[in-house]
Amino acid sequence: MSGGVDSSTAAALLAESNSANSSGSSTEVVGLTMQLWNQRRLPQLLGGEAGEEGRASGRCCSLDDVYDARAVASFLNIPYYVINLEKQFEAAVVRPFVEGYLAGETPIPCSLCNTEIKFAQFLTTARQIGAERIATGHYARVRRDPQTGRYQLLRGVDRSKDQAYFLFGLTQEQLAHSEFPLGEMTKQEVRAIARARRLPVADKPDSQEICFVPSGSYRQFIDAYLDEQKHHAESSAGEVVATDGSVLGEHQGIQNFTVGQRKGLGMAVGEPLYVISLDPSKNRVVVGDDRELFRSRFRVREVNWIRPLAPGDAVDAHVKIRHNHPGAAARVEVHASGKAVVEFNDPQRAITPGQAAVFYDGDEVVGGGWISQVE
Question: What residues act catalytically?
Answer without folding.
Answer: 113, 211
